[in-house]
Amino acid sequence: MNANKFLLTQIEMEASLILITNAEVYTPEAIGKNDVLIAGGKIIAVEPHLKSKMAMAKIVDVNGLKLMPGFIDAHVHIAGAGGEGGPASRTPEMQLSHMIEAGVTTVIGCLGTDGFTRSFESVLMKVKALRAEGVSAWMYAGAYQLPTPTLTGDVGRDISLIDEVIGVGEIALSDHRSSHPTVAELTKLAAHARVGGMLGDKAGIVNIHMGDAKNPFQLLYDVVASSELSLKQFFPTHCNRNSYIFEDAKKYGKLSTIDLTASSYPYFPDIEIKPSVAVRELLAAGVPIAHITMTSDAFGSLPHFDEHGNLVKLEMGLLTSLHSEFAAMIQQEGLPVSVALKTITENPAITLKLKHKGQIKPGFDADLLLLDDGFNLCSVMANGKWMMHESKLLVKGTYE
Ligand code: ZN
Fold it and tell me: Of 9 and 135, which is predicted with more confidence?
C-alpha cells in the first residue's frame, strides 16, 4: 500500500471523529462524567479521559452538560391525521424541525382515524423523506379500521418485506371510531403481524388505540386466552386518557408494556392523567419501569365528543410534549433522570426491536442530546450529525 495514501486516510478518518468531552452521561443509567467518541454515525467508545488518547478527533467540550440518548417517539402522525371535524380539520404533515426542536431523533409514523382518504403510501414516503433529511424513522402499516390499509394486501407481507414497516397500527379498540373488531379478527391480524415480524426480523407488534369505552383491555386478554399469542404482541397507547382506563392499565402494565400519551393532557386536564404523574403512579402500583413508555401522538387531532357523539372541541398534539413531560417527571414528580429517560429511549427501542437505538453504548447509533441543569435542550445529534448545537437549529426540512 502507498504509505502517503495510508497516512491521508488515517488523517481523514480521525478528522471525522467527534469526541464529546466532560459530559454527565445518562445511558439512560447515570454513569457520571465521561467522554463519548463518535465516528461514522455510531458511538465508538464511552470512557472517562478519552481526550488524552484521541488527539486527532474534533473535540467538543460540553462543560458538564447532561448527555442523553435522543428521544424515540413511537406514535406520531407524521403525514397528518384527524379530520373528525370535516376537511378543514385535517392536520398538516410534520416537518423535520418539529422533531429536532423536540429532541426526537427517532420517530414511528402511523395513519390514525383516517384510513379512508389518507394512505399507507403517504406515510411511507414521509418516512423515506425523514431518513433522507438525516433522522431515523419507521412506520406502522394500517389505520384505525379493519380490514386495515396495507401496501401488499396483508400486514404480514408489509412487515416482512418493507424495510420501513415494523408493525401494524394504530388499530382502534373501545372507541366509536373503531371498526369494533371481534376476538377472531384481532387474533388473525396479530398473528399475521407476528409472522411478518419473524420473517422480517422486526417487532411485528400491534399498536392499539385505546378509546374511551369501559374495560378496553378485555379484548386483548380474550385474544391471548383463545390463541397462542402473548400480550407482548400488543402495544396499547393512550392508557392515561381517563381514570378508569388508567386503573385498568395498572393491572395490565404488570403483565406487558403500556404506552402513555403526552400531547393531549394540556387540552383535557380534567379527564386525562398527566403523563408524568401517571409514570410515578404506575411505578407506585408495582408496574415495572421496563413496561412503561411515553409517546406524543403529535399531529394527531385531539377531538372531544359529548355524550351524543357530537364533536365539541378539536386540538392538535405537539412533539414537544414528550420533552416537557420528561422534565416534569424529574422536576415535579421527583423521579430519577434514568427512570424518566427510559420511558422515551431504551424502553420503546426494546419494545419495538429498534436495534442500536435508545442507549449510549459502543455500537449504538450516535443519536444524542445535550441538556442543561434545568433540562433545557441545548444540542441534538442524529446519526452522528449535529442538527441543533448550542441552541441553534442547524438543519431544516427541505421546504422549511
Ligand atoms: Zn390514537
Answer: 135
Tell me whether residue 297 is one of the annotated catalytic residues: yes
Is the pLDDT reported for residue 12 higher than 70?
A: no
Which among 73, 158, 297, 367 is annotated as catalytic? Answer: 297
My answer on whether 130 and 152 are in the same domain is: yes
What spacing in Å lies between the alpha carbon of 264 and ligand 1's midpoint?
10
Q: Looking at the structure, do residues 76 and 65 belong to the same domain, yes or no?
A: no
Distance (angstroms) between ligand 1 centre and the Cα of 40 equals 36
Give me the CATH number covering residue 235: 3.20.20.140
Same domain, 47 and 77: no
Is there a domain that residue 37 lies in? yes
What's the rounded Cα separation, in Å, for the pair 53 and 105?
29
pLDDT of residue 9: 53
Q: How many helices (H) and strands (E) in the chain?
A: 11, 19
Decide if pLDDT at 155 tops 80. yes
Give the mean pLDDT of the chain.
94
The predicted model scores a pTM of 0.94
Q: pLDDT at residue 1 above 50?
A: no
Distance 209 CA to ligand 1 centre (A): 4
Closest Cα to residue 176, out of 211, 143, 148? 211
Q: Percentages helix, strand, coil for the chain, rounded to the nearest 5?
A: 30, 25, 40
Is residue 4 one of the residues assigned to a domain?
A: no
How many percent of the chain have pLDDT more than 90? 84
| 167, β-bridge pairs | 140, 205
Looking only at the bridges linking them, the beta strands covering 311-316 and 71-76 are: unpaired
